[in-house]
Amino acid sequence: MTNFGYTIWIPLLPFLMFLLLGLAGNKLKAKLSGLLGTAGLAVITILSYFTAYKYFFGGENAEEGFQKIQAFNTVWLNLTDKLHIDLGILLDPISVMMLVVITTVSLMVHIYSLGYMKGEKGFERFFAFLSLFSFSMLGLVVATNIFQMYIFWELVGVSSFLLIGFYYTKPSAVRASKKAFIVTRFADLGFLIGILILSFNTKTFDFITLTDPSGPAFSQSTSAAFMGLSVMTWSMIFIFMGGVGKSAMFPFHVWLPDAMEGPTPVSALIHAATMVVAGVYLVARMFPIFSLTAPVALHVVAYVGAFSSLFAAIIACTQTDIKRVLAYSTMSQIGYMMLALGVSGYGGHEGLGYMASMFHLFTHAMFKALLFLGAGAIIHAVHSNDMTDMGGLRKYLPITHMTFLIACLTIAGIPPLSGFFSKDEILAAALHSNKLLFAVEYLVAGLTAFYMFRLYFSIFWGKDTHYHHTPHEAPFTMTIPLMILAVGSIVTGFIPFNELVTSDGKPFESELELMVAIPSVLVALFGIGFAYLLYFKTNGLPDKVAGFFKYGYKWAYNKFYIDEVYIFVTKQVIFRYISTPIAWFDRHVVDATMNLIASTTQNVSFRIRDFQSGQIQKYAFVFITGAVMLAILFIYFLN
Amino acid sequence: MTANQYMFILFALMIIVFSVLTVTTRKILRAATFLLFVLVSTSGLYFMLNYQFLAAIQLSLYAGGIVVLIIFSILLTSHISQKFESPGFKKVIFSALASAAGAILAIVTILDYNFSATTIAAKEVNMNAIGKGFLSVDYDGYVLPFEVISILLLASMIGAIVIAKKGGPAKVQTTTLNKE
Amino acid sequence: MDILSLFVVIPVLTITAILFLKDMKQVRVVSAIGMGVQLVLAAVLIYMYLTARHSGNTDEMLFVKDYIWYKSLNIHYAIGVDGISVAMIGLTSIVVIAGIFASWEVEYLRREFFISLILLATGVFGFFISIDLFTMFLFYELAVIPMYLLIGIWGTGPKEYSAMKLTLMLMGGSALLLLGLLGIYFNSAPGGGQLTFNILEISKITIPIAAQRIFFPLTFVGFGVLGALFPFHTWSPDGHASAPTAVSMLHAGVLMKLGGYGAFRVAIFLMPEAAKELSWIFIILTATSVVYGAFGAIVQKDLKYINAYSSVSHCGLVLFAILMMNKTAMNGAVLQMISHGLMTALFFALIGMIYGRTHTRLISEMGGLMKVIPFLSVCYVIAGLASLGLPGLSGFVAEMTIFVGAFQHPEPFYRGVTILAVSSIVITAVYILRVVAILLLGPTTNDHFTHLPDAKWYEKISVVTLIGAVAAIGLAPLWLSNMIGISLQPIVTKILAITPF
Amino acid sequence: MSAGIPVQYFLILATVMFFAGVYGFLTRRNLITILMSVELILNSVNINFLAFNRYLYPHKMEGMFFSIFVIAVAACEAAVAIAIIINIYRRFTTINVEDVNEMKF
Question: What is the pTM of this model?
Answer without folding.
Answer: 0.83
